[in-house]
C-alpha cells in the first residue's frame, strides 16, 4: 500500500513540503497514518473517495491541507498527539465523548492525546489539519510557565475562530499553508522555522481555554532565568549530544549545584532527568514515523543518545505505556 501511495507523489515544488495528488481510499489511509494518527478510513456507500494532501513538517509540528471529494469517515482509537482541524470550505462532523460537534470555517476542532478521533468531512470540502507532538506542546507550556505541567492539556473540543487571539492564531496557520507555494519563503530558513513553530505552539496555548490558561496569561508570568534557558535550548536543539551535568553547568555559566537547584526550582526535575525525557520524546516521535522494514529500535535508541537498549526500553515503557517495538510495529 505504501508503494502505491508514494507513486502518486508529485515533484516537490518547495523544500520540506510533500504534495500528493488525488488518491483513493486505501492510499489516503496510508498517507494519513504516516503523517497523523493510526486510523481507519470508511467510505460512504456509493461514494468515490478522492483525497488531495499537501503537508509540511517542521519538527514536531505537522500542517496539512486536505481536500475531500466523496464521503469519508476518519476514525482513530486514540490520538497519539494534539490535533486541531480547521475547516476551510464545507463542514466537518466530529464526535467527542458521545457528543456530536459540527464545525465550519468559523470553528476549530481539537483532540487530545489518548482521545478517540472521529471526523466526517462533508464532500466536497477542505480543511487544514495540525498535528503537534505531545512532548512539544507540553514542553512549550512548561517553559512559558517556568515549571513542569501535568498533561495532557485540556484543550476544548471546539473553539471559535471569528475573533480574538484564536482568529489571529488561525491566520498564522493559514499563512504557513499559503507560504508552501513559494520555494524562497523564509519559512524554509531553519532559524525562522524555529520561531514560527514556537509561535504556533505558544499561540495555541494563549488562544484557547485550559486549566493553565489563567496562569499563563497573567501579567508578569516569569519563566526560567536566562542561564537555565540556555541549558534548555542546548538540550532541545541537540538532545542526542553526550551531555554531562558538568557540561550543562558550563553552558549555564554556573556551578553544578546551582544548576541542579535551578532546575528543581523552575522545572521540577534534575537537568539529566530533563535530558532523558527529551530524548525519550524524540525517540518516540522517530519510532512513530519510521518504516519498520528500514530501521530498528536499536538504531533509533542509539540515534537519540541511548547506549543501553534494555534501560532505554524500560524508561520508554514507563513514559509511554508501551514498548519501543510496539510503537514501531504500528507503522507496519
TrEMBL record:
SUPFAM superfamilies (alphabetical): Homeodomain-like, Regulatory protein AraC
The keyword Signal belongs to this UniProt entry's keyword annotation: no
Coiled coil: none
Entry annotated with the keyword Transcription: yes
GO function terms (MF aspect): DNA-binding transcription factor activity; sequence-specific DNA binding
Taxonomy of the source species: Bacteria, Bacillati, Actinomycetota, Actinomycetes, Micromonosporales
Alphabetical list of InterPro entries matching this protein: AraC-bd_2, AraC_XylS_family_regulators, Homeodomain-like_sf, HTH-like, HTH_AraC, HTH_AraC-typ_CS
Record's protein name: Transcriptional regulator
Domain HTH araC/xylS-type: 229-330
UniProt keyword list: Activator, DNA-binding, Transcription, Transcription regulation
Superkingdom assignment: Bacteria
Amino acid at each position: 500500500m505504501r508503494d502505491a501511495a508514494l507513486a502518486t507523489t508529485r515533484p516537490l515544488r518547495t523544500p520540506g513540503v510533500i504534495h500528493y495528488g488525488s488518491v483513493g481510499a486505501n492510499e489516503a489511509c496510508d498517507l494519513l497514518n504516516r503523517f497523523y494518527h493510526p486510523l481507519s478510513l470508511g467510505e460512504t456507500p456509493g461514494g468515490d473517495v478522492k483525497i488531495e494532501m499537501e503537508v509540511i513538517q517542521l519538527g514536531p509540528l505537522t500542517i496539512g491541507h486536505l481536500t475531500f471529494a466523496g464521503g469519508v469517515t476518519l476514525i482513530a482509537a486514540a490520538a497519539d498527539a494534539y490535533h486541531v482541524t480547521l475547516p476551510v470550505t464545507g463542514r466537518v462532523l466530529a464526535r467527542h465523548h458521545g457528543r456530536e460537534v459540527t464545525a465550519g470555517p468559523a470553528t476549530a476542532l481539537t483532540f487530545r492525546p489518548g482521545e478517540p478521533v472521529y471526523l466526517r468531512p462533508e464532500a466536497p470540502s477542505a480543511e487544514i489539519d495540525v498535528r503537534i507532538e505531545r512532548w512539544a506542546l507540553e514542553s512549550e507550556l512548561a517553559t512559558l510557565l517556568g515549571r513542569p505541567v501535568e498533561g495532557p492539556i485540556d484543550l476544548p473540543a471546539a473553539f471559535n475562530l471569528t475573533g480574538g487571539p484564536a482568529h489571529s492564531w488561525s491566520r498564522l496557520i493559514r499563512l504557513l499553508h499559503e507560504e508552501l507555494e513559494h520555494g524562497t519563503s523564509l519559512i524554509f530558513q531553519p532559524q525562522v522555522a524555529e520561531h514560527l513553530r514556537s509561535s504556533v505552539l505558544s499561540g495555541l496555548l494563549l488562544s484557547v481555554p485550559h486549566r493553565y490558561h489563567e496562569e499563563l496569561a497573567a501579567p508578569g508570568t516569569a519563566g526560567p532565568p536566562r542561564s537555565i534557558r540556555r541549558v534548555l535550548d542546548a538540550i532541545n536543539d541537540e538532545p542526542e549530544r553526550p551531555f554531562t551535568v558538568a557540561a550543562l553547568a558550563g553552558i549555564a555559566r554556573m556551578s553544578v549545584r546551582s544548576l541542579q537547584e535551578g532546575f528543581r526550582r523552575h522545572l521540577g526535575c534534575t537537568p539529566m532527568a530533563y535530558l532523558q525525557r527529551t530524548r525519550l520524546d524524540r525517540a518516540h516521535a522517530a519510532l512513530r514515523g519510521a518504516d519498520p522494514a528500514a530501521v530498528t529500535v536499536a538504531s533509533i535508541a542509539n540515534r537519540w543518545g541511548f547506549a543501553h537498549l534494555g534501560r532505554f526500553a524500560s524508561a520508554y515503557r514507563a513514559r509511554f505505556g508501551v514498548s519501543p517495538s510496539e510503537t514501531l510495529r504500528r507503522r507496519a
